């Protein structure tokens, strides 16, 4: 089994037949000006450093034949799946559903809701639309992973302390092992990036493991393994 000896808090061994790459919410709404992230007062440029390493990791995972899944946070056009507390919270410059330069903020089907061009899903790669921060809440992700016999997740995306953390906690409670790739997850807040990763690996790996994408690329095969479902 490929093993990442440099992982924190301890080595991470994963079976290529039961491991998937999960790319969380790499959407224009979080990474580009005029979207949800900027409406909350964030410097969206903080997240762009994840795109290069994630592009390379995606290529490596695809070459190795791993299942690749993408998620998008967003809501139905009538906002029926958006809790009032989420809609009304804070004082953003634009609220969810308001018009913006990339379409209505965080609404499914809008340009801003979709994944950035550099990381566009390939045909056949599942894209899970989720109304919450966690990728398991109100989605079919658990069933989809079970169908493909996935037990281990390589976790990437944005933001580290919000959707990545929520998803890793949900996954951990469901029995999945999660390796979070530090250079492929991003936060608007440098201190949250550092502490968010420390929280995952602390206490013997209370929620999972942390490593860098280079460590994964170093152990991935360059030709596809056969996934059980294929
Ligand atoms: N605001 C923030 O940091 N994140 C989110 O609202 N969603 C995700 O993390 N995807």
TrEMBL record:
Which superkingdom, per the lineage?
A: Bacteria
Keywords on this record? Hydrolase
Source lineage: Bacteria, Bacillati, Actinomycetota, Actinomycetes, Micromonosporales
Query: Which residues lie in Basic and acidic residues bias regions?
Result: 86-97
Annotated segments matching region Disordered: 77-100
Please identify the protein, giving its name as recorded: Cysteine hydrolase
Question: GO molecular-function annotation terms?
Answer: hydrolase activity
Q: Which InterPro entries match?
A: Isochorismatase-like_dom, Isochorismatase-like_hydrls, Isochorismatase-like_sf
Recorded hits in CDD domains, A to Z, give: cysteine_hydrolases
Q: Which residues form the Isochorismatase-like domain?
A: 19-206
Recorded hits in Gene3D superfamilies, A to Z, give: Isochorismatase-like (3.40.50.850)
Classification via Pfam families: Isochorismatase
């Amino acid at each position: 089994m490929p093993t990442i000896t440099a992982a924190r808090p301890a080595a991470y061994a994963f079976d290529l037949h039961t491991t998937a790459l999960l790319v969380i919410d790499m959407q224009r709404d979080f990474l580009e000006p005029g979207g949800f992230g900027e409406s909350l007062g964030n410097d969206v440029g903080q997240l762009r450093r994840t795109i290069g390493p994630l592009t390379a990791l995606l290529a490596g995972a695809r070459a190795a034949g791993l299942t690749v899944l993408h998620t998008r946070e967003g809501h139905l056009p009538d906002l029926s799946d958006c809790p009032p507390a989420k809609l009304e919270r804070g004082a953003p410059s634009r609220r969810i559903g308001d018009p913006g330069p990339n379409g209505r903020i965080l609404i499914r089907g809008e340009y801003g809701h979709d994944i950035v061009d550099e990381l566009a899903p390939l045909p056949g790669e599942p894209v899970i639309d989720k109304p919450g921060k966690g990728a398991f809440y109100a989605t079919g992700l658990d069933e989809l992973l079970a169908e493909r016999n996935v037990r281990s997740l390589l976790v990437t995306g944005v933001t580290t302390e919000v959707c990545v953390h929520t998803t890793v906690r949900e996954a951990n409670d469901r029995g999945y092992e999660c390796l979070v790739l530090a250079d492929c997850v991003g936060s608007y807040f440098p201190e949250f990036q550092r502490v968010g990763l420390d929280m995952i690996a602390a206490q013997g790996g209370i929620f999972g493991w942390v490593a860098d994408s280079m460590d994964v690329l170093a152990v991935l095969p360059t030709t596809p393994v056969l996934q059980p479902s294929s």
